[in-house]
């Protein structure tokens, strides 16, 4: 049987935990907003999107890696994701939301993640 990956170690949970520990309260996965942002701080008009490096084509090594099989399929699928991400960010901005994208690979260093979140959430 396949082991279920612990939800506690997912990038999104790492980000949520930190934001919560910093004293901010938020809601999750707003269906009403473009891209269904993972973390929504409605009173501040800010959202945080946690992106998996592979699915959203980050510029890091993991994001640029190509699977051995069905390369064309994956390339197309991921390009569509990346294009959609861009559209969603534009729509969020147009609606007056500030958005922060946190890449999966950037959630591993808690200190720098905390700094990034602090700068974004501060004002
Ligand atoms: Zn990455």
β-sheet strand percentage = 5-15%
State the helicity in percent bands.
40-55%
Give me the side-by-side strand order of the main sheet: 1-2-3-4
SSE string, helices as H and strands as E:
HEEEHHEH
Query: Any idea what the shape is?
Result: globular
Q: Structural class of the helix and strand makeup?
A: alpha+beta
Query: How far from one another are the termini?
Result: 47 Å
- Mean pLDDT metric: 90
Model regions low in confidence, pLDDT < 50 over at least 5 residues? 4-8
Radius of gyration: 15 Å
Q: Biggest sheet, in brief?
A: 4 strands, mixed
Ligand roster: zinc ion
Q: What is the tally of beta strands? A: 4
Number of helical stretches of at least 4 residues: 4
Protein architecture, described:
The protein is of the alpha+beta class and 123 residues long. The protein contains four helices and four strands; from the N terminus they run H-E-E-E-H-H-E-H. The protein has a four-stranded mixed beta sheet with strand order 1-2-3-4, sandwiched between helices. Strand 2 and strand 3 (46-51) form a beta hairpin. The longest helix has 24 residues, at 71-94. The protein is globular. The relative contact order is 0.19. The model is unreliable at 4-8 (pLDDT under 50). Zinc ion binds at residues 53, 58, 60, 62-63, 103-105. The site of zinc ion (ZN) has 8 residues, from helix 2.
């Amino acid at each position: 049987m396949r082991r279920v990956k612990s939800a506690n170690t997912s990038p999104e949970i790492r980000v949520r935990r930190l934001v919560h520990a910093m004293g901010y309260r938020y809601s999750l996965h707003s269906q009403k907003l473009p891209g269904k942002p993972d973390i929504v701080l409605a009173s501040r008009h800010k959202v945080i999107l946690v992106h998996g490096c592979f699915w959203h084509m980050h510029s890091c090594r993991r994001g640029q890696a190509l699977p051995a099989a069905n390369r064309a399929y994956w390339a197309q699928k991921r390009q569509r994701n990346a294009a959609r991400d861009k559209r969603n960010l534009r729509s969020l901005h147009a609606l007056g939301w500030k958005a922060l994208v946190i890449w999966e690979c950037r959630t591993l260093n808690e200190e720098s993640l905390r700094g990034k979140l602090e700068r974004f959430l501060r004002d």
